[in-house]
């Protein structure tokens, strides 16, 4: 592990705030990206990133030297984000009926909005859609997809973060891709 | 959908860059000839591309501040308190030496002026201190930044800080016996700050020890 990081962790274990500040500088970007793609909005992403670092600080004694720091941090962020979504009403699920008495889903609504196919292509297609569709994925698939594509982690590293066998990580990645593929096909069919 | 599960898995392995060169060639051959797999591949490739295209978002500027504000108090101070609790004697001694050091430092700097132990019968002329003949000082006597004319008697120790004795009565003979006629205790000459501290500390420790071990 990085020598400087080792030093910093040692200092943090002694309760040094300044050293922890340096750790925040080094990892806040990564953790924020991860939380943002897991949760889909800035408010929740900020909340969870902050909570991740506070937890890391208060639990630093449980961090062992043989572990790697960044997977440890990603794991805290992932678990917190999943818990957060569980507690919060899943407002982002596109497949949920808009109202109990209706069969129409949010996805149907997006598709039936008064727009030409070209407009829909430009606004939705470019960047919004993928994030929205990502949020419809079960969290176990979403975690793997986000770590793989947004954070560029290897399958081995993802296995470390989520404490899963590499085989399971692959299965989740494939199923996640398949689910996204189906949703994108659905969105584009009009 | 791919024409069968094996090819679907192959497509994913391909996206993971896990296929060997030959496996890749075989897969591509199949895709060229199978419309179902071709469509599946294109759809998956689009997902892969879109996910790869996701751009990083900006991190809020107050993120770090908010985190720092939420951290439990810097426990280095807590540790300090713990040490005081567990080792009161050591802590007291450390505190004592710090105080001593500071007070000595202040003392030293505010005492470039001549000063001496208060005693009636001792005469000062400018920066000269005269202990007249026939005068007897019962205890210790300390002089700072002065010349001392020693004609009387000191029953205790004489401490000279940045001071010297100019003795006009002139005792011939060796240095050690120079003051024998006038001083019953020891004569300590201190003309450097470090020595002064050492000397002061020595006395303070003695009184500290008698304080803690009565
Ligand atoms: Zn096929």
From TrEMBL, chain A:
GO molecular function: DNA binding; sigma factor activity
One GO term (biological process): DNA-templated transcription initiation
Keyword Transcription: yes
Keyword vocabulary terms for this entry: Sigma factor, Transcription, Transcription regulation
Stored CDD domains: Sigma70_r4
RNA polymerase sigma-70 region domain residues: 24-89
Residue span, RNA polymerase sigma factor 70 region 4 type domain: 129-180
Keyword RNA-binding: no
Domain of life: Bacteria
Similarity annotation: Belongs to the sigma-70 factor family. ECF subfamily.
Protein name: RNA polymerase sigma factor SigW
Species name: Aquisalibacillus elongatus
TrEMBL record, chain B:
Pfam families: zf-HC2 (PF13490)
Presence of the UniProt keyword Transmembrane helix in the record: yes
Alphabetical UniProt keywords: Membrane, Transmembrane, Transmembrane helix
Domain (Putative zinc-finger) ranges: 6-38
Residues annotated as transmembrane: 88-108
Record carries keyword Membrane: yes
Source species, domain of life: Bacteria
Name this polypeptide is given: Putative zinc finger protein
């Amino acid at each position: 592990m990085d020598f400087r990081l080792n030093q910093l962790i040692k200092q943090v274990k002694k309760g040094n705030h300044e050293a922890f500040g340096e750790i925040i500088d080094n990892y806040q970007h990564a953790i924020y990206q991860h939380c943002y793609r897991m949760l889909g909005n800035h408010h929740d992403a900020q909340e969870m990133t902050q909570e991740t670092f506070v937890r890391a600080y208060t639990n630093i004694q449980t961090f062992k030297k043989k572990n790697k720091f960044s997977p440890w941090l990603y794991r805290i962020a992932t678990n917190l984000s999943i818990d957060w979504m569980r507690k919060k009403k899943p407002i982002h699920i596109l497949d949920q009926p808009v109202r109990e008495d209706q069969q129409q889903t949010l996805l149907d609504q997006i598709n039936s909005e008064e727009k030409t196919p070209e407009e829909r292509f430009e606004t939705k297609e470019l960047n919004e859609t993928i994030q929205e569709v990502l949020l419809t994925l079960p969290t176990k698939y979403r975690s793997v997809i986000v770590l793989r594509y947004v954070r560029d982690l290897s399958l081995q590293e993802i296995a470390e973060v989520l404490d899963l066998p590499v085989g399971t990580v692959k299965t989740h990645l494939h199923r996640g891709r398949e689910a996204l593929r189906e949703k994108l096909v659905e969105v584009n069919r009009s | 959908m791919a024409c069968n599960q094996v090819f679907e898995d192959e497509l994913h392995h391909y996206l993971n860059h896990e296929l060997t060169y030959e496996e890749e060639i075989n897969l591509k051959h199949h895709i060229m000839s199978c419309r179902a797999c071709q469509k599946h591949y294109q759809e998956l490739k689009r997902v892969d591309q879109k996910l790869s295209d996701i751009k990083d978002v900006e991190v809020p500027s107050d993120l770090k501040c908010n985190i720092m504000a939420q951290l439990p108090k810097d426990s280095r101070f807590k540790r300090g308190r713990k040490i005081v609790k567990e080792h009161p004697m050591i802590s007291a001694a450390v505190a004592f030496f710090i105080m001593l050091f500071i007070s000595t430092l202040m003392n030293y700097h505010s005492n470039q002026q001549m000063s001496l132990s208060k005693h009636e019968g001792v005469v000062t002329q400018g920066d000269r201190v005269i202990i007249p003949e026939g005068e007897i000082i019962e205890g210790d006597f300390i002089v700072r930044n002065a010349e001392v004319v020693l004609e009387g008697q000191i029953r205790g120790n004489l401490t000279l800080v940045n001071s010297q004795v100019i003795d006009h009565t002139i005792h011939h003979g060796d240095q050690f016996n120079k003051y024998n006629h006038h001083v019953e205790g020891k004569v300590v000459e201190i003309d450097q700050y470090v020595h002064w501290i050492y000397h002061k500390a020595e006395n303070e420790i003695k009184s500290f020890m008698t304080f803690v071990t009565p």
